[in-house]
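User: Please look over both lines:
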Amino acid sequence: MKLHLKFGFAAIALTLFFSAFAVTETKAQNILPEILKRMEAHRNSLTSLRTNVTMVIINDQLKEKDITEGTALYLPAKGRDALVRIDWTKPVQETLSVVDKQYVIYTPRRKSAIVGNASAAKGSGKANNVFAFISMSKDQLKANYTVKYLGQEKVSDGTETWHLEMIPKNISSYKSAEMWVDGNGMPIQIKITESNKDTRTVLLTNFTKNVTIKASVFKVDLPRGTQVIKG
């Protein structure tokens, strides 16, 4: 009798466990459309963004971490790509500007500027990727990525977010992307994992939205004598 009771309780426990797991999976499936809906609404209502930005690059092979900090401006434009400007202040002063798919990275201490196609940008220029995700519509996300909801999570500044994983459906320069979306539907952190397992995480903090930003500020005026290098 005791043996029957023992197996009976075990069966009940397993049933409850798998039932709870099924409910969790169902909730995850149900919440993803709501997250994407909020992201779409946020994208449609955003007219400008001023923010602090922190980028952490981790070299998996060397186990080295590089942290870069600065401020950024973002200005979406109907019918064309958004304007982006990032002014890095730590550890060195550097300016990244992206206009009409072309980037400029100006480094004052070297008196040099690298110019090229934004999709091919390297190093600190890749911080532009987070703004590409902000610009992306719900249909574009679903067409280009397999999106999975990973749960609720706080980012380093304490903001509660929804954590999403995005696996590219087509050949891509990176293995996967992760996105942390706040309650308003804004992606505030993006993590890119490269094929070699290096990672790049960009976090936006202390931001203000829908303020007046002139398009002219996105043009980088290079001082006379600046060496221009094609990227």
